[in-house]
Design goal:
This protein has about 200 residues and is mainly α. It contains 9 helices and no strands. It has a domain at about 45-90 and about 135-200. It has helices at about 15-65, 80-85, 90-95, 95-110, 120-135, 135-140, 145-165, 170-175, 180-200. Helix 2 (about 80-85) runs antiparallel to helix 7.
Length: about 200
């Protein structure tokens, strides 16, 4: 009966170190991938949702100002707010031929038929006109970086403090008949820029 010979595999210590280092690198890469996926997926979706929400809140405040819930705040500032916070898909739609035709008709009506041009259409028409004629510096650059978000935040803060002052104090802004709806609407304007700036810092 012959003897069986076995070869003993010796493991070099440096090989173990290389394997451990590679595994550590793979773990770090997996963590970075998960972090970026969460940021671009979950948080990015949250930013887009809040952007739509802020635009709807701004339009809501414009409608309130044209109804019996009229306020003393400078609602014309909502136009640049909507300009900078408007979702890209809507902005692209109105900056194209559709927006140009709307702006053209609005200008014609305002110039030649001023009596037939309703007052409540002035601000929406100004918004469409602003979107159509905006230079690429504002339409393509500033809108997509933190400067546009900072402008939205500044407008929201100014409107909030003006509304509180016009209401006679912070408590009155929540207790008056038309205070709650306007206060909540303006606070909603703050959520999107604050969230977007925090993500930009992170």
């Amino acid at each position: 009966m012959g003897k069986r010979s076995y070869l003993a595999m010796k493991t070099d210590p440096t090989t173990n170190e290389f394997i451990a280092s590679d595994l550590k690198d793979l773990g770090n890469a997996a963590k970075k991938l998960a972090t970026h996926a969460i940021k671009l997926g979950g948080l990015g979706f949250g930013t887009t949702f809040l952007q739509w929400f802020a635009t709807v809140a701004a339009i809501y405040l414009l409608i309130l100002d044209r109804t019996n819930w009229k306020t003393n705040i400078l609602t014309s500032l909502l136009i640049p707010y909507i300009f900078f916070s408007l979702p890209s898909i809507i902005f692209s739609f109105f900056s194209g031929q559709v927006g140009k035709w709307i702006a053209f008709i609005a200008v014609i009506l305002r110039l030649f038929f001023p009596r037939r041009f309703p007052g409540w259409l002035e601000l929406p028409a100004a918004l469409i006109l602003l979107i159509v004629v905006a230079p690429s510096l504002f339409a393509d650059t500033i809108r997509d970086i933190w400067i546009g978000v900072a402008i939205c935040l500044g407008i929201a803060c100014y409107l909030l403090q003006e509304h509180i002052r016009a209401s006679g104090g912070f408590r009155n802004s929540f207790t008056k008949s038309n205070g709650i709806s306007n206060t909540v609407g303006i606070i909603l304007l703050l959520v999107y820029p604050v969230w977007a700036l925090v993500l930009d810092i992170l």
